[in-house]
Amino acid sequence: MSKVAFDEMAGIGEACRPGYKHVNDWLRDTSTEQLQRYHREAEVLFRRIGITFAVYGDAAAEERLIPFDIVPRIITQSEWQRLAKGLEQRVKALNAFLADVYGPGEIVKAGVVPADLVYRNPYFRPEVAGFMPPRGIFIPISGIDIVRVDSETFYVLEDNARTPSGVSYMLENREVMIRLLPDLCLDHRIAPVENYPDELLATLRSIAPPSAPMNPTVALLTPGPYNSAYYEHSFLADRLGVDLVEGSDLFVRDNIVYMRTTEGPRRVDVLYRRLDDDFIDPLVFRPDSVLGVPGLVSAYRAGNIALANAVGTGVADDKAIYTYMPEIVRFYFGEEPILKNVPTWRCREPDALAYVLDHLSELVVKEVSGSGGYGMLVGPHADRATIEAFRAKLIAKPDEFIAQPTLALSTCPTFVESGVAPRHVDLRPFVLTGSDKVRIVPGGLTRVALKEGSLVVNSSQGGGTKDTWIVADPA
Q1: What pLDDT does residue 61 have?
Q2: Does 227 share its domain with 329?
Q3: Which residues have a Cβ under 8 Å from the Cβ of 153 and sit 6 or more positions away?
Q4: Are residues 141 and 158 in the same domain?
Q5: Hey, which of 148, 164, 371, 456 would disulfide with 160, CB 3.0 to 4.6 Å?
Q6: CA–CA dist 245, 234 (Å, integer)
Q7: 360 to each of 131, 322, 374, 402, 409, how far by Cα in Å?
Q8: What's the CA gap between 101 and 107, in Å, rounded?
Q9: Phi, psi of 407 (to 5 degrees)
Q10: Mean pLDDT over each residue of the chain, to the nearest integer
Q11: 226: helix, coil or strand?
Q12: Phi, psi at residue 402, to the nearest 5°?
């Protein structure tokens, strides 16, 4: 696999790739000073909006702006259509997998996925085994992380099936671009993203229990203002036109969930919960949780409320389960996966472990339950001490790790202190799965590694974001 990064604007040896002509012309005609002014204006706008995130354990900077890059990322409509088709197939397979492992377990009985990876997985919830959500949808909201390595090849890097975040940045990035660069936006026929809240609300209403009224009541459950993604919670509740609630705002009576209001209790039919399983119900999971709602799981099992996402979906986005996604797609659909996984070694397998130990300096090693770019080794960028520390971890607990080649992730032109330079990017499209249909707003959140040579795009580790434009193919 080539280590030469594919540049999404310039390609390799090309003057300018399809779709990027207007952006290329704009960059050529815009001075560094003007780009810097746009950058400062964007930062002012984001500060006025109040779009921040928290970094846990960082007392010096508890609330930060995610850096925003004003150079848009371009994906043509034909490229997007291929991606969207693959995303729909993958999310349907994830839902089928969850329905199976919490039900008959046919994929385990067939020996396709090892039983211990499912039933001993820390995110598998036996408390809801044998239970099907009201409309059979486990993952109404998913974020699938995609990386690109050349003009044709996209890989899935990670599946986010619990509480995927970042959609508020996708929406705000677009609004800021339209305000700062209206002429550049008009030069492109950009597929809209501003209808995402409408699509999300339609998806949530579609999964309401059969006993719910024609216009079911939806609420968004947040851990509260100290959560790192609280801005997004309040932003989405406002855009959806639903109540933003904390656990103390809800109570359960006779297996029905009610919201406290100034006009008295109001039944809740769908709860978009941005709270991990461990904290949602102290009667079932962590008894010390003050964030959840006592009795919520009982009401859920009684079929009186829909949860987005369902309890126990974390077993589907575990990095060990990720390695079996090609087999999962084939098992349920008899199809080849449209979107491929990154080639992966399962360190639980002796031959794979031996290879990984021999090539640690060349590989990326990840904890199967890790997230946010933490708990991983990027071999080519690690010093000897770090590599040896990871070697000891692998030998001690090989089941807890996977390894992948160091991909030459695609780059996009990005405005940095030195001017415009290529930086590595990934893409998180958001897939909405209702009982009626699958909805995918064209685009998603592009994350960019702002440090030269870095492959880590996570905002908690210095990454930024870009607006993602899905544009018509050039004539």
Answers
A1: 46
A2: no
A3: 340
A4: yes
A5: 164
A6: 10
A7: 42, 21, 17, 12, 19
A8: 7
A9: -70, 145
A10: 92
A11: coil
A12: -125, 165
Q: Are residues 432 and 447 in the same domain?
A: yes
Give the global pTM. Answer: 0.93
The parent domain of residue 184 ranges over 21-209+305-340+407-471
* Cα-to-chain-centroid distance, residue 424: 17
Count: domains in the chain? 3
Report the CATH number that the domain containing residue 284 is assigned in CATH. Answer: 3.40.50.11290
Instruction: Indicate the DSSP class of residue 254.
Output: T
Distance from the first to the final alpha carbon of the chain: 32
Is pLDDT above 50 for 331?
yes
Q: Are 249 and 259 in contact (CB under 8 A)?
A: yes
- Tell me, what's the pLDDT at 1? 40
Which of 378, 384, 424, 316 lies closest to 92 in space, CA to CA?
A: 316
Backbone angles phi, psi at 181, to 5 degrees: -130, 60
Of 396, 475, 464, 469, residue with least CA distance to 425: 464
pLDDT, position 6: 92
Q: Which single residue is written with the structure tokens 């950058």?
A: 39
Give the C-alpha separation, 271 to 305, whole Å: 7
- Residue 378: both structure tokens together: 């990027």
- pLDDT tens for 100-148 read 999 999 999 999 999 999 999 999 999 999 999 989 999 999 999 999 9
Pair 159, 268 in one domain: no
| 223, part of any domain | yes
Q: Distance of CA 180 to CAs 35, 40, 143, Å? A: 11, 11, 28
Q: Torsions phi, psi of 313, nearest 5?
A: -70, -15
* Sequence-separated contacts (24+) of 13-22 with Cβ below 8 Å: 17/151, 18/76, 18/473, 18/474, 19/74, 19/75, 19/76, 19/471, 19/473, 19/474, 20/74, 21/474, 22/184, 22/187, 22/188
Rounded to an integer, the average pLDDT of 152-176 is 94
Place of tokens 């929406």: 171
